[in-house]
Records
---
Amino acid sequence: MPIEVNSTRLWDDIAESGRIGATEKGGLCRLALSDEDRRVREWFVEACRAEGCEVCFDELGNLFARRPGRRSDLHPIAIGSHLDTQPTGGRFDGILGVLAGLELVRTLNDHGVETEHPIEVIDWTNEEGARFAPAMQGSGVFAGALEKEAILSCRDRAGRVFGEELERIGFRGADVCGDHPLDSYFELHIEQGPVLEEEKKAIGVVVGVQGMRWYDLTLEGCASHAGTTPMKLRRDASVAAAEIIVAVNRLAGKVDGGALTTTGVIDAYPNSRNVVPSRVFMTVDLRHAEIEALDRMEQRLKEIVATTCSQHQVSGTLDRLWDSPPVRFDDECVAAVRESARKENHPFREMLSGAGHDAVYVSRVAPTAMIFIPCEGGISHNEIESATPEHVGAGATVLLKAVLIRDRHPD
Ligand SMILES: [Zn+2]
């Protein structure tokens, strides 16, 4: 008999999780290391123990629930994501990936399946970065990309310290973060974008994550009287900014392979209706799957800034403050997901993730792949975030079968 996940049970778990930190509009507010985070962790740990899992957590509070395999000399095949949310977050972002892991364990137990590898379900601490910045702290330290001490001592806006809050909710473990080898890592997540829904695909086989670069740009002109300064004598920082915004937007269309460019912040000074703006602070966000393309986009951005500034006689200072290189997930793990989607007859497409995920960091230390399912209207980080029971079931099934392929289980 083929092994099937119980998608109703998984759906009920998502509903149950949705009661811990529920907001009035049907979303969740479950900030990392808050009382709500404690409650969902306690609930999750109890559910895992009830399935016979051994639960441990490391010094960053990353939580590992382990179902033993036939061979204890093999590292675990891990499944995970995060149970924390944005302050006005949805019920699926992150939660789906963790609870699908729990459902997978339950399914294996129901069918008496013994895997070769141990199976581990992971809840990574503070993926969202909403309360303590930056994001993806648990998986970042695990992968050696972030400094443990810096994270443990970082503070939220109320001045509370990460390490103390972790202690307070009772999830500061003794295990050294990162000293925990994994055979492989699979993360199921909602797409958080509109592509799968628009193409009526149930499954996204995620082959990697696009690279991102963030810039601050400051333009300096000269403040002057709006009624007395002739147009040709102005050094108007806002006009230069406007031309840069349009040029940056058009830049995306000139680069092959799905370039994305965004100017998300624009602040003009002194921000007074009868003063020619002297200064503009703005941000630029460039994304692409290829590092060479990002290099070309950056070069072009510099040219746009230089040319526009000289035309308007303003000065421009461009600083790159973040560079997250593109990630290619592991060929074998991706192939397992693809094969699983094909076997289960779910319409799928290969795609890149536009957003960051714990899988980005974990892929540095373990063979990794991700599975996406559609979310309604592509909307996420929003209380109205939604997905259908059918897609949730399809995603969990593809996850299960991919894990069994990785384990070389004869199903
Ligand atoms: Zn997430």
Note: The longest helix spans residues 291-312.
---
Amino acid sequence: MKVILFGATGMVGQGVLRECLLDSAIEAVLAVGRSPTGERQPKLREIQHEDFTDYSDIEPQLTGYDACFFCLGVSSIGMDEERYRHLTYDITLAAANTLSRLNSQMVFVYVTGRGTDSTEQGALMWARVKGKTENDLLKLPFKAAYMFRPAGIQPLHGIRSKTAWVQAIYVGAAPLLSLLNRVAPKYMTTTEQVGRAMIKVAREGYPRPVLESEDINYL
Ligand SMILES: NC(=O)c1ccc[n+]([C@@H]2O[C@H](COP(=O)([O-])OP(=O)(O)OC[C@H]3O[C@@H](n4cnc5c(N)ncnc54)[C@H](OP(=O)(O)O)[C@@H]3O)[C@@H](O)[C@H]2O)c1
């Protein structure tokens, strides 16, 4: 399986990258990002890209892939709706439109979050924007698309969040989060479980297009 990974420098993306590099069934990983991952591995190739709404200059390098794991995303905290929509909806759909056109057999996996609003009408801004993003991704002509909606994600194996307050919470609450992961899989998963689940759905599929934390942990 050949995989394109967006957001490989983030907390979720680092976890997904780690699992992809460890999985012998994945022969190549292309990380598309604005900054380097710092990883050196024969099966990893990186493209440093600037405009995440336009991929025309790198299109030839984005063909021939089986899966895309889209882990690029931002927190809505302190952001107005227009900016959050741009960074969430516009960037994701620009990449997905390009990839679905270039790779008709691709499986696309997108990370949203628990509470994403599929009606696009609810009171929470971030949930509406993520809901619209999910809904429009599911209309694209991919072989299949899966929406991952984790609640909390515990970073393992030295992985760090790019967002300082998220990192502080995960460090401070690490023992509690490990416990939660065992006793309340509805509310907590790990970067390792997210990465492994993405690889599994890309390879084998899943009965539903939207996966909550319990589905991710079950996989
Ligand atoms: N962390 C959690 O506990 C959690 C839980 C549920 C859902 N999620 C969702 O998972 C997704 C990823 O979260 P995360 O915790 O991994 O975030 P993160 O650690 O802050 O990483 C964000 C990633 O997105 C990239 N990125 C952000 N803005 C960008 C832009 N304007 N252009 C290009 N790349 C950009 C970053 O690249 P740079 O390295 O270049 O900044 C980085 O690779 C988000 O959608 C989030 O809502 C996270």
Note: The pocket of NAP is lined by residues 7, 9-13, 33-35, 52, 71-74, 87, 111, 113, 150, 152-153, 161-163, 166 (CB under 6 Å).
---
Amino acid sequence: MPYYRVTGEIPRKRHVRFRRPDGGLYAEELMGEEGFSSDSSLLYHAHLPTAIVKSEGLADAAADAGIVPNHPLLPRHFRTSDLPKGGDLVLGRQLLMANDDVRISFAAADAASGLYRNSTGDEAIYLRTGSVMFESVYGRIEAGAGDYVVVPRGTIHRWIPSAGGNGAAAPPAEALVIEARGHIRPPRRYLSQYGQFLEHAPYSERDLRCPDGPLIAEGGDVPVIVRNRGGLTRLTYANHPFDVVGWDGCLYPYAFNIADFEPIVKRTHAPPPVHQTFEGPNFVICSFCPRPLDFDTDAVPVPYNHHNVDSDEMMFYVAGDYTARKGSGVGIGSITLHPSGFTHGPQPGAVEAAIRGLDEGRATTDETAVMIDTFRPLLLGPAGQRTEDPEYAWSWGRAASG
Ligand SMILES: [Fe+2]
């Protein structure tokens, strides 16, 4: 994150003596990216953040077993509504697609996760439904439907789904989990050379919700599940990692709600880069939001057929009515994969229907979707294969030949 924040108590200068009320020293922890040549934050712990007392290797249920190439090449449609509900937002992830840059999973969490640190890369969790409390060494963020929560690599955190009214169990929080093998950031072109959001960007600093204060937790022998490139390990810490009294810097988790994305519209159809929200290593995340329709009197207000020759396109249909996919079986909770090597576009009849709608006075679209475009091909994970709609690939051709 490019802009500076202070939370809790910190000393006037960096790396000077900062004492607890009992006279002992607070322990500094500098979390820094790219060999401390990029963003960082300096945290002050009540106890040593280095004090571990046990390390146990864990079996990795989310390992790459069961991942297959998209071969023979096909456009795909998966129904996340058919996937099992339950579990937590860390160990309950069901892998939909993956490549060497990003792993994309679905979770429908109804239980609190344990403490977790992903040291392989940043994560962005998009919540489609439900509400959760995100707790971390940086503090707490309340997140709800439509929020992206971006978690920097190495942040110890946990997810606690909110209870329903009167303490009743809440419906599961459904989430798309995006795990990068690197950092997830606002697109470079939205920022000044020093990192401030520019006026043309579709969101700004005011739209980002950051941890609201340090969590000061006590307790000993606290397990933390750590994912690194060697797999999963349970490290037991002598003291609770949420013992931070203050921090400052430019690296921290934050939430951004898709409804705070300001859509950019044109007189005729605007291309996908106007929807870009974040960039990761060899992939982008885009938000398609309710917006005015293209407003030229001759406009065709749905996408043209297109071949994104360098990318695979994954689309998660979140809410509203997606005109371009009418008649294909795609609905809320669906995910489509339109890979490089396949030209895709609106379903048969959708273009005429959209033109008719515009001519009859329809001026807006209520569609909401999250798209991930990857430069490397996406392989299919077990959860994707399990929920595939085998008819989708033929939904254009059947109409043309019938
Ligand atoms: Fe597309």
Note: Residues 108 and 118 are 20 Å apart (CA to CA).
---
Amino acid sequence: MPAVSLREILQPAFEARYGVGAFNIVNDLTMAAVLDAAVEVKSPVIIQVSVNTVKMWGARLIQQMFAEMASRRPVPATLHLDHCPDMEMIKTCLAAGWNSALFDASSLSYQDNLRLCREVVAFAKKHGAGVEGELEAVRGIEHEVDSDAQEELVPVERCVEFIDSTGIDCFAPAIGTAHGLYKTKPKINFERVEAIVARRRTPIVLHGGTGLSKETFKRLIAAGCAKVNISTMLKITFGDSLKNYLEAKPKEYDPMKLQKAVHTDLLNMAKGFMEIFGSAGKA
Ligand SMILES: [Zn+2]
């Protein structure tokens, strides 16, 4: 079916408390595998793309590939630009027909973030697209902090003000998750998700999904996390799949067979998450 908006995917998920996986694809093979997983388990899906992937392939090619692949599959799918601090890149993608973007102004002051995020929302509206907003930087393995250290959190009331005055479609608060692989068990701030959702019925976005337990996913989704980002696990599956295949068949030079093996492993990885998130059967 033709691509749908981020809101059309997230609103029913938020209301019924299931999560929709947003998988950071890197090329045609990974995009097809994630979409095929959605078809197999009848799940809505978010095809998410990092800035570096856009730089490699170009906004137009990714959008056209997505439009073509999505139109041939009977599940709701949307194309989303992940963590982008570059206003020009966001505008290029949205003007090229992408469905939504995360404007990442977490390094800016609150006032600048607010002002620029409003500009992104206004531009997105003109193009029928949606926007994910955030106020705090999501921690990453490269800046791992002492797990006992208290994070400087934006007060919940300010998050609500940000949601209201920007008009974003979903919000990504800092809740103790991190990008990359967890070295120690993360301390998840479930209460923060509950507090924001109690004040505003806005779908919450969970960053740093790779490595969280099934129970953590389920609790966060029950609290209102409707978009669940999976990036690191896709990269690991991709790499391991290639490695395993070539180790098992060092004389196999047919790229089609190699790609088929990777496709199967990626498909199973994505299906597994869709089952855990409860989105399977919802398309
Ligand atoms: Zn993220």
Note: The pocket of zinc ion is lined by residues 83, 138, 179, 207, 229 (CB under 6 Å).
